[in-house]
Design goal:
This protein has 255 residues and is an all-alpha fold. It has 9 helices and no strands.
């Protein structure tokens, strides 16, 4: 047997081994191949992160609701937020029993403003987006604090006054007493909330994230409104006490 015969047999043997290996690879079941490849979607969290999984499902359900019926979801969420905020404010700021009329006013105010507020933040999220993320966030914060916050606070306190039966002059005084201080204090909270929301929170979850923060903020606004109302009542009492009494006329009719 010469060298050419051995070389030919060796080539055929090598080709046969390659074909057999390719057949085995092709015959492997897809599920068997998947066992060797880690999947991100089926990764089981470690013991330290397992507690997060039950918390994700309510947010996923809310995101699905928000996608299907954004207006109904927003209205329902806002009513819950305003009810809890007013309930908390009445418990914190007053020793008197719960006043359902105040709670009803809060629900009316929240219900009217829910959809416009939702539209505003959708507009804010879709605009002022620049190449620089820091510039985008700073612009959104400045525009929100300059335009939305004072307008909303004026609406909130003005409606609180009007729905409680106050006159236009009294409503104007309520706005003067509450809007500047509430706008000033809003800078301590909402810029950070806005920056975090537009940086880390997905659009479908931003309303519920802001809503959780807004429960505490609505508590503060309701407390500030009740405080202003008490001060106005005290001023009215003092003014009434200082007013001169009108003496009845004792003059005799002319003869």
């Amino acid at each position: 047997m010469n060298s050419y015969t051995l070389a030919g047999r060796g080539s055929r043997l090598l080709l046969r081994l390659r074909l057999n290996g390719q057949r085995r690879l092709n015959s492997t079941k897809p599920q068997d191949q998947a066992k060797d490849v880690p999947s991100r979607s089926t990764t089981i969290p470690g013991p330290g992160m397992a507690w997060i999984e039950p918390l994700k499902e309510p947010f996923r359900a809310y995101g699905r609701m928000q996608h299907r019926s954004p207006y109904i979801t927003q209205l329902s969420t806002t009513l819950i937020i305003y009810f809890l905020g007013d309930l908390s404010a009445q418990k914190v700021a007053s020793d008197e029993p719960y006043d359902p009329s105040r709670g009803l006013r809060a629900l009316i105010i929240g219900g009217i403003s829910s959809i416009p507020n939702y539209k505003w933040f959708m507009f804010l999220g879709n605009h002022f987006n620049y190449k620089s993320h820091a510039r985008s966030i700073a612009t959104k914060i400045v525009i929100n604090q300059t335009f939305f916050t004072p307008c909303f606070n004026t609406y909130f306190f003005g409606m609180q006054s009007l729905l409680s039966g106050q006159t236009l002059a009294q409503t104007k005084q309520r706005v003067i007493d509450t809007v500047p201080v509430s706008w000033k204090n809003s800078w301590k909270l909402w810029p950070a909330v806005t920056a975090f929301s537009f940086t880390f929170v997905a659009p479908q979850y931003r309303s519920v994230f802001a809503g959780v923060i807004a429960i505490g903020w609505q508590t503060y606004l309701s407390w500030l409104n009740m405080k202003a109302q008490k001060e106005e009542d005290e001023r009215a009492t003092v003014s009434a006490a200082k007013a001169p009494l009108t003496a009845p006329s004792t003059a005799l009719p002319a003869a």
